[in-house]
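User: Can you predict the 3D structure for this chain?
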Amino acid sequence: MNTGNAQGSGEDPKSEFLLREGTAADAGAVSALLRRAFLKFEHLYTPQAFLATVQPEDGVLSRLREGPLWVLERESTLIGTVGAVRMADSVIVRGMAVDPAAQGVRIGRTLLDLTEKFAQKHGYGRLSLYTTAFLRQAIHLYKTSGFQFTGETASPHGTQLLRMVKVLKGNASAVERT
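Assistant: Here is the predicted structure, written as structure tokens:
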């Protein structure tokens, strides 16, 4: 378990948080966090795409079987989450969300750093993720974290997804395979 200090945007720098691996007991809270984080964008998703993004508790439990999921808590409340899925060519950053009330204090960056360390620990040279064009704040975070658009798109539930990839340090040759 790691603790750290949330910093930035008027947040009290002494406000501690706890970053830990999520468990099945967290599934309901993770589902609620996903809903809070994406609710303002619901009208931009198809109903099927929104449900795929805002996983119900049983969907979170399924994701826990596919790879690790981490949660970030402050005062026993989940304020951030991210999952990782190991694929053949990269680790996929999946289900990342930050509570709207906790945005702007580097929680997203902390979660991305965690998935990067996980990928490197397991010998991967790339991180990848899918996002939508209307999640502009998230895209800004991804770009400033080193992710680049690949030009690949997918629309599994009727809302277009854009693929982004980050080549991890020491893996310049992985750029050619994106």
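The domain at 2-171 is CATH 3.40.630.30 (Aminopeptidase). The radius of gyration is 16 Å.
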